[in-house]
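Known limitations

Structure tokens in this collection are predictions and should be treated as such. Users comparing against experimental data should check residue numbering before alignment. To illustrate the layout, the record for Phosphatase NudJ is reproduced below. The input appears on top and the generated tokens appear beneath it.
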Amino acid sequence: MHNPESAPSPLRWKPNVTVAAVIERDGRFLLVEEHTAGGLKLNTPAGHLDPGESPAEGCTREALEETAHHFTPTALVGVYMARFQKQADGEDITYMRFAFAGDLGAFEPDRALDTGIVRTLWLTADEIRASTERHRSPLLLQCIEDYLAGQRHPLALIHVDTSVKQGGPTP
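Generated tokens:
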């Protein structure tokens, strides 16, 4: 039986939590083209959740850092998981992605994009479907398809305890 008071095993599996913005305007989706170990890849504005952030806050930050656009999440499109093995060292990684729909805000034209981001692109769903070999994540297309199917969940579905902002309870 697992004892929650015991220290976690060094081999305990933990997914990497990421957040993604599904941003649509006039039938086109805002994607980023970025350098990866596998070459130039396409992705929704996305990245890792930082300590002290709610998933919605992390999504807002990542969208701004990667696209220079302000973004306000208004709904959760879905929660997704994918697993892959790094080619370089064989590391087995699982990602858990929180994908959000929302409102696109102001653009900051003088803002530098995150390291590795080459440019932003506005692509149609058909263009995204036709470019799966260039997708950074296998979750990119699924998030777009779920968005197009009208899948939206209230942000209140994700409860963020106050301990997240306070650094957690003291033992």
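For this record: Helices lie at 55-67, 125-129, 139-148, 163-166. Residues 55-67 form the longest helix (13 residues). Please report discrepancies through the issue tracker.
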